[in-house]
Amino acid sequence: MQLPRFCQTLLVLLCAGLVGCENSSPSDQVFQGKTMGTVWRVTASGLTPEQARELPHLIQQRLDADDQELSTWKKDSWLSRFNQNPSLDPQPVSDNVAAIITSSLYVGRMTEGAMDITVGPLVNLWGFGPNAIPTHTPSASQITAAKTRVGLQHLTLNETVQGNTLRKDIPDLYVDLSTVGEGFAADHLARLMEQQGVRNYLVSVGGALISRGQHLQGQPWRVAVQKPTDKMNQAQVVVDLQGHGISTSGDYRNYYELEGKRISHIIDPNSGQPIDHHLVSATVIATTALEADAWDTGLMVLGTEKAKALAKRLHLAVYLITKEGDHFVGWASPTFKTFMVNDQSH
Length: 346
Known about the structure:
Blueprint: E1 9-13, E2 18-23, E3 28-35, E4 38-45, H1 49-70, H2 78-84, E5 91-93, H3 95-110, H4 120-125, H5 140-147, E6 155-160, E7 163-168, H6 178-195, E8 201-205, E9 208-212, E10 222-226, E11 235-240, E12 245-250, E13 255-258, E14 261-264, E15 279-286, H7 289-302, H8 304-314, E16 317-324, E17 327-332, H9 334-337
Antiparallel strand pairs: 1-2, 2-10, 3-4, 4-8, 5-7, 6-7, 8-9, 9-12, 10-11, 12-15, 13-14, 15-16, 16-17
């Protein structure tokens, strides 16, 4: 089924459930490539010929540097070396990593541990990391053993003028920043655009997006939240980003079936089990894509009612999609409604 047209736009599907609405213009430049196991895309308006020539290389260079720091798949990345190092002494970390850890720890506390960047042992146990998909459901003892290596209380970030350090208090703690890496990388590309004098752009890495300015035609950047199904690409709601970041987390694409049960890739750190509730998609708009990327996962773990309560209490811009029978039901927080495009017929 075709996606609906909004403002005669070209809708670009992104892997985590967001669709970018880009007003097509001969003066718009579109660049794209691969990073962190996903795709990146930059659409910019009003570029000079020199900017158009240089940006693709600069973008890929910046993303490659981020991947070299944050990847758990590259054995020589900073993060892999931190995970492999059994030392409990403080380890120096860059400002980049410190920013990600700070956001992750904050959201982790506010969601009572639902968003946890140390959940890797459980993710691997359930077959969504480097380990193969298990042939049998993990036992209670296996889950309990993995949970002893999980918990934000095992990480301590110390930020000083002399430098940042990160310390773990158990030698085999496994930190995985893939939950927030896309959001951070999108923000990093936005900073690159500003540094290069680009003022009108929409950038995305995976399912995390951020925008500034507007199209050359004077139209705002808009994105559509995709209906949570892997059978068609269809927009659920459209928003005007207003210079903010946005990210969606959903369990409708990355899953497998084991012993007759659907296994979601989103693991609840508290139970040690894949989530098993009716919330199928959580979209968050925030000042940065990193913040949005951190919140969406935590809200998915919490489930519909807890996510609604937290969004209202903290005035978060949140859009939830819950499956009720054969239907998908959307809910927008009061703050999210301020970003929604009321007339979605044009």
